[in-house]
C-alpha cells in the first residue's frame, strides 16, 4: 500500500467517529474550530505520553496489571483529562452537559488517530488489521472520551456532587481503558470472545450517556418553554 491510502485508512476512523458524536449534539453545536483544536491537542499528547510511559515501563517492571491500568490507561486518560479540564471546563463554549462529551471525544480521538497512524506506518498492517483497529482501539478511545465528557458535564451543570463527578470523569475512563487493554493482553488466542461483549457494552453505555447528556441540556428546557408560550 502506498503512503496516501495508508494515511487515509489510519485517519478515517477517528474523523468518522468524531463527526458522529459532533452531530449528536442536538441543541447547540460547538464551534468546529474549537473541536478541531481539541482534536489536534489530543494528537500532540501522544508525544509526552510516550516518553512518560517508556520511563514508567523501565521503573515499574512488566506486570500486566501495572502496565495496563497504570502505565497505559492511567497515563493516557490522565493527560486527556488534564487537557480538557484546564482548557475547556471553564470555557464559555462549554454551555451544556453534552459539550463535555464533544470535547473529550475530540481529544481522545486525536490521540487515538496519531497512535493509529504510527501503527500503520511502523507495522505495515493488512486492510483487515486496519479495520480491526478502527473497531477496537480507536472506537474504545471514543467510548472512554464519552465517559469522561459525560461526568465533566455533570460536574459543571449539576447542583452538588461536583467533586464526585470530577473524580468519575477520570477514574471511569482509567478503569475501562485498563479493562480493555488487560483483556487484549491476556486473551491473545481467544480475545474475540471477550472483546465483542465488552465493546457492545461500551457502545450501548456510551449511547445511553449521549441521550442522558442531551436530555439534561438547559437549551432543551428553554425550547420546551418557548413551545409552551407559543
TrEMBL record:
It is a multi-pass membrane protein. Its EC number is 3.4.-.-. Pfam families: PrsW-protease. It is found in: Cell membrane. It comes from the Bacteria. One of its GO terms (biological process) is proteolysis. One of its GO terms (molecular function) is peptidase activity. Keywords: Cell membrane, Hydrolase, Membrane, Protease, Transmembrane, Transmembrane helix. The keyword Mitochondrion does not apply. The chain crosses the membrane at residues 6-23, 35-53, 65-88, 100-122, 134-153, 165-184, 190-208. Belongs to the protease PrsW family. Involved in the degradation of specific anti-sigma factors. PANTHER family: PROTEASE PRSW. This is Protease PrsW. The lineage of its organism: Bacteria, Bacillati, Bacillota, Bacilli, Bacillales.
Amino acid at each position: 500500500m502506498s503512503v496516501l491510502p495508508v494515511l487515509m485508512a489510519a485517519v478515517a476512523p477517528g474523523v468518522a467517529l468524531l463527526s458522529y458524536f459532533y452531530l449528536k449534539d442536538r441543541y447547540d453545536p460547538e464551534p468546529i474550530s474549537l473541536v478541531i483544536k481539541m482534536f489536534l491537542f489530543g494528537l500532540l499528547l501522544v508525544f509526552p505520553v510516550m516518553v512518560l510511559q517508556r520511563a514508567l515501563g523501565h521503573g515499574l517492571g512488566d506486570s500486566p496489571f501495572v502496565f495496563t491500568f497504570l502505565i497505559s490507561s492511567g497515563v493516557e486518560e490522565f493527560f486527556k483529562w488534564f487537557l480538557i479540564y484546564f482548557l475547556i471546563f471553564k470555557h464559555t463554549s462549554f454551555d451544556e452537559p453534552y459539550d463535555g462529551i464533544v470535547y473529550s471525544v475530540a481529544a481522545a480521538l486525536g490521540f487515538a488517530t496519531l497512535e493509529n497512524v504510527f501503527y500503520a506506518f511502523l507495522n505495515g498492517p493488512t486492510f483487515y488489521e486496519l479495520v480491526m483497529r478502527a473497531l477496537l482501539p480507536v472506537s474504545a478511545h471514543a467510548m472512554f472520551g464519552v465517559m469522561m465528557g459525560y461526568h465533566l458535564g455533570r460536574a459543571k451543570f449539576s447542583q452538588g456532587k461536583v467533586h464526585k463527578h470530577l473524580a468519575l470523569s477520570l477514574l471511569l475512563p482509567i478503569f475501562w481503558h485498563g479493562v480493555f487493554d488487560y483483556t487484549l493482553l491476556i486473551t491473545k488466542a481467544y480475545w474475540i470472545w471477550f472483546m465483542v461483549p465488552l465493546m457492545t457494552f461500551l457502545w450501548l453505555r456510551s449511547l445511553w450517556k449521549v441521550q442522558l447528556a442531551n436530555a439534561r441540556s438547559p437549551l432543551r428546557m428553554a425550547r420546551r418553554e418557548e413551545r409552551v408560550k407559543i
